Amino acid sequence: QVQLVESGGGLVQAGGSLRLSCAASERTFSSYAMGWFRQAPGKEREFVATISWSGSSTDYADSVKGRFTISRDNAKITVYLQMNSLNPEDTAVYYCAAKRTYNPPRDRYNYWGQGTQVTVSS
Residue 28: CB partners within 8 Å, gap ≥ 6? Predict the structure, then answer.
């Protein structure tokens, strides 16, 4: 199975920026779609963003569209989530996820990281 390791979480002031990274350990399959999900305190896990491994397709939740950008570096087998204009509502544990195919973009992910905490203070 694919091992996913997130990094880059932390504490940031409202209006600030943060970049999360997700590194995959398995390179046997070259076309994994990767996504980001988050779970805020007392809330259910929700979809944030996803990208095909080739980078040709992306999808974003309405709540982050225009503020977050997902990208990837094939040489490093790493996916990033650039988060700008952060607000306290973005506070959550962010999880990296992966699956063999892109569709459906917001569901049916097979592999999951352990999460990284993002806290946005006001």
Answer: none
